[in-house]
Give the backbone structure.
Amino acid sequence: MAITHYEALSASVKHLFKLDTPNSSYVIGIIDDEGFVTHVYYGDSIGDYHLEEIPRIDEMPFLPSNNNRDRCSFLDSCPMEYPTHGLGDFRQDCFKIETVNGNAGVSLTYKDYRIEKGKPDLPGLPATFGKEDEVSTLILICEDAVTGIEYQLNYSVFEDLDVITRNVRILNKGKEPLYLTRVYSACLDMDNEDYTALTLHGTWARERKITETKLNRTRLVVESVRGETSHQDNPFIAVKEATATDRYGRVYAMNFVYSGNFRITTQEDQFGQLRVTMGISDEDFKWKLEPGADFVSPEAVMVYSGEGTGKMTRTFHDLYRKHLIRSPYKDKKRPILINNWEATYFDFDTDKLISIAKEASRLGIEMLVMDDGWFGVRNDDNTSLGDWTVNENKLKGGLKYLVDEVNKLGMKFGIWFEPEMISPDSDLYRAHPDWAIAIPNRVPSRARNQYVLDLSREDVLEHTYESVAKVLRSANIEYVKWDMNRQLSDLGSALLPADRMGELYHRYVLGVYSLQERLLKEFPNLLLENCSGGGARFDPGMLYYSPQIWCSDDTDAIERLSIQEGTALVYPLSTMGAHVSDCPNHAVGRTTPFETRGHVALAGTFGYELDVTKIPEEDRNMIPEQVKMYHRYNDLVREGDYYRIASFRANGVYDCYGVVKKDKSEALFTYVQVVARVNYHSRRIFLQGLAPDKKYRIEGEDAVYTGEVLMKAGYRVKTMHGDYLSRLIHIMEV
Ligand code: DGJ
């Protein structure tokens, strides 16, 4: 059992709960007569010898039971599991309310506990899962006696991975309605000093760049208030001890399984202790809880690594591949697709698509995806979102005809939707202007000339679902790209009452989840790819519904190196939508070799985003080889352990990463020489993840090396003549 309960270890330590994963321990202490729920320890596995000695309760300010005159000082310094607002803990708290009298202060004291095998689902929310022998759950039941709030603090502990997930359930057991104005999902309060944070930031076409911030007394806030996770900020943080690297040192990471507004804070307090919190952003959040009602927070995943950020990454990858993604495609090769967005933008018709499909199928590509522009009168991005009826001027003979023709070529067919949106210039908006999110008497701000549908409404959800499903029922469509091209502003719903308007952001996200859940129920074999103007909704919440997410609208191989490095820091390679596109690249105007574009896209789902009838013949001739390369290596890329060897982002010269098969019999490293440098020796790269005593041969070479030599003495990569050149280093056990 991964959860152990100890009782009455000392006069002050009433209960201890020890949560053990293979290499980490997490200890919670219930202390003092009142039952404060305190944090005792998190880090490398420890035994159970006198754990009650760890908390600093024998020094000032002492416990309230013997020094209540300094209660505030106690609350403001003791490491807490779920700090509440307004009673003396002046650090960032996790929970705040507004009572009918307008008060905000609230306490949390221990009542009871339960330990269960397995992990309960979170109703309406994505969450990691596991069987009864893979995970167990500790439920701490706590209360605020004054309001009648019951808290359930849930901790699920994985048996085979260094992962603990957390969320809270709040029940109003009082007699009056309450407003929840802040409900975070997790707090990590560590009595440790000197940490650096790793976070992921960007913008459109520059998503998830790794950012390092030395933590100090200045608070760090990583937040989205855009209604989605966003291009700008990802719901991830790792705090690592100052000396930690990719391979060594202690790293504590958190990732939020949610696709809307979020807020992560770090704060070093007056004593140098670090507090990290994670949850739904409290900006414009106010949730009414009637007596008897409950609120369930989304899940925060905590990963501990005592072996640097590399191990942290591999833990996230294993967790998400095994315990989050549900799609039947999750352990399968995805069809190599060709998407017509960069090939044609809005300017296409049936003939054009069939000509692309014919050439693509001849070259070995397996699926045609018809992107934006097939519906309503959408010939540019100004109209028709919401009018999901086929434009038969473009698709002569209709959608089914096109799909059948593509199928006859032996290819699958996929289609693009942007279901959450409504164009002001659409039949839907003319019929239902109140279906758009808007504030009464204010014209909502447009973004890409569109508004957002009010997905907190049942009627809007029903209509949206049926519009998408009707198209999918009409032909043999096997893939959907679900796009979302603007962020939420002008928050207002025509149906929500005034005292529930603060629920709109969260209800919107629940609406998106319910639509995707329903879609997957009706079309269980559909391959769903989420997308949001590129990678603005690349988060674990979305991975619960789709096994892959479009990484970025920047398809340039060199830009992709750091976008994919940041993405792969947390998310498995199997989830990263990556395509080969034409040059000069549409986003940056750079020209790179077709081979390099293929090698870089190989690290993701792999596909094409170009007009295969128009690209240079020498590029086209390379496609069948790339198709073979994908089929040869995709199992390894999808399922292997990922190792970062060098980062172009950090060194400005070259990039190198690899995947190693779980049994260590095979590995594939990708080396990209971004900038050529004259008169240098060959470069020695220190491989990782191999078995030291196994013998390996590098494909194309005769020499045999031990894993130990390749990892310690390194492998020499010859300098190549020119910029943007790449090489695959395929290693097999002999
Ligand atoms: C944004 C996506 O990221 C692109 O790939 C493309 O689908 C466009 N939207 C279409 O409008």
